[in-house]
C-alpha cells in the first residue's frame, strides 16, 4: 500500500487509481459513521458516495498538517448534519441487524443484542451535535483535538458536549431484562 500522502498528491494530479485507493481505505468507516448518524442503510450509502465526491472536489483544500481521516470525517459530519437539517425530521428509530459480540450462551447473546439495539435507538434519539460527538469519540476513536478540528469548535466545547451527551444518554438508558444500563463504549 502506498503512503497516504503520496496517494493524495496523485489524486491532486488527477490519478483515478489513487481516488479508488482512498475510497477503498475509508468507505467502511465513513459508511459506519453515517449509518450511526442517520439510522438508515440506504441513506448512509447515498451520503457516503456524496462525501467521497465532495472530498474529490475539495482535495485541493486538504492541508497535510491535519490527518486525512480527520479531514474526511469533517466533510462527512458536516454533510450529514446539513442533510438532517434539510429533512427537518428525526432520524429513523428502527435499527437494522447489528453484529453481536461472541459470548458463551444464547442468553448472553440475546441480552447483548437487546442492549446494543436499545443503545442504538437512544443514540438516534440524541440531538445531532451530541450524537456526532459521541460517535467521533467512541466509535471512530478520535482525540478531543481531532474532534475539535472535524467540527470546527474549540476543544473545551468538545469536552462540554461529550459531558452533556453522556448525561443525556444516561437519562435515556434503562436496564434491559435485569442487566444494568449499557455503557457508551459498547456502541
TrEMBL record:
Claim: DNA-binding is one of the keywords in the record: yes
Keywords of the record: DNA-binding, Sigma factor, Transcription, Transcription regulation
Stretches assigned to the RNA polymerase sigma factor 70 region 4 type domain: 117-169
**Coiled-coil region(s):** none
GO terms of biological process kind: DNA-templated transcription initiation; response to stress
List residues of the RNA polymerase sigma-70 region domain. Answer: 22-89
Can you provide one Gene Ontology molecular function annotated for this UniProt record?
DNA binding
- Does the entry feature the keyword Methyltransferase, yes or no? no
Similarity comment: family membership: Belongs to the sigma-70 factor family. ECF subfamily.
Protein name as catalogued: RNA polymerase sigma factor
Which species is this UniProt entry from? Brevibacillus borstelensis AK1
